[in-house]
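Complex 341.
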Amino acid sequence: MSRKAFQRILSRAGVSTLAVVVAFGLGFAAPQAVAQTKQIIRISTPAVPDDWHAKMWTVFKENLDKSAPGQFDVQIHLNAALFKQGTEPTAMARGNLEMSAISAQDISKIVPEFSIFTAGYIIRDVDHQQKVFNGPIGEEVFKPVIKKMEVTPLATAYLGTRQVMLREVKDVKTPADLKGVKLRMPSSKEWLFLGEALGATPMPMAYGEVYLALQTGTIDGQDNPLPSARAAKFYEVSKTIVMTSHLVDAVFISISSKFYNALTPDQQQKVKLAAEAAARYNNANRVKDEAELIDFFKAQGLKIVTPDVGAFRKAVQQKYLTSDMAKTWPKGLLERINAVR
Ligand code: KDO
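Predicted structure with KDO bound:
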């Protein structure tokens, strides 16, 4: 074929003259190579722009653009703008979304035994969390996720340690002090169970509605890690933080298996490394924030309450261990999690 004829075909396909010249200059590259398009990676998250697990997606994008130049078009959608909170796993399984950071509660809906990670006071701290999920236990518990959900977890991001925040000034020492408190929880039965275990009256609500609900008094409080409370400005409409530290929370950076399995091994490796870099960035910043934020909130006029964490731990653990949920937990897993040091 002459260069002119080739150029006519390609220009109808939207390929520029420059690309044709370059292709011929390189010794006639195959038309597919010339017209190669980037693979689109759509990301959806309810995270607000100022939060670390929103910013981590830019780290993901930059890493991938660097390691696999020209191969991917990473599109980041924050504030649940693309998919509603909690609907991301289904969207990924169906191939309508490529990536998200999903919660243990999302996973438990399909993989009930994963609910062990939704239980309060099981994971001790960020180091424990990272060791559990990056070690043999992680490998084991992610297998049914990949199999049943058609979603592949790539890295574990520390969301932070959840604390209770209330819109009024209140002294809370034990779960009994939360009796009748309308505590917003994310909308799933695993989350509501946690709210109940804390002694409160849980109210399901999407993350994006929490600020207004606190402002208007539709709810009395909500629980989230301190960095998220700063980023979403919940402190502007709260007066008390009760340092219950009830859940050392994670979100799992995950990818649609349909999409991931269609990548070359080299691309898979690069996507995974980029996800790990994003998680590292998030984790380091959240840990730093958690150490500094108490002072920030105090300066904003909030009352910081140190409750009887032992009383909360005892009540919450008791409620979980005697629940139907615990019956789905693989035998010996709790002991193995506890033994990770
Ligand atoms: C929330 O809705 O309280 C929560 O913290 C739950 C998490 O699993 C996660 O979805 C998170 O919101 C969002 O990423 C927003 O920070």
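The chain has one domain: 38-339.
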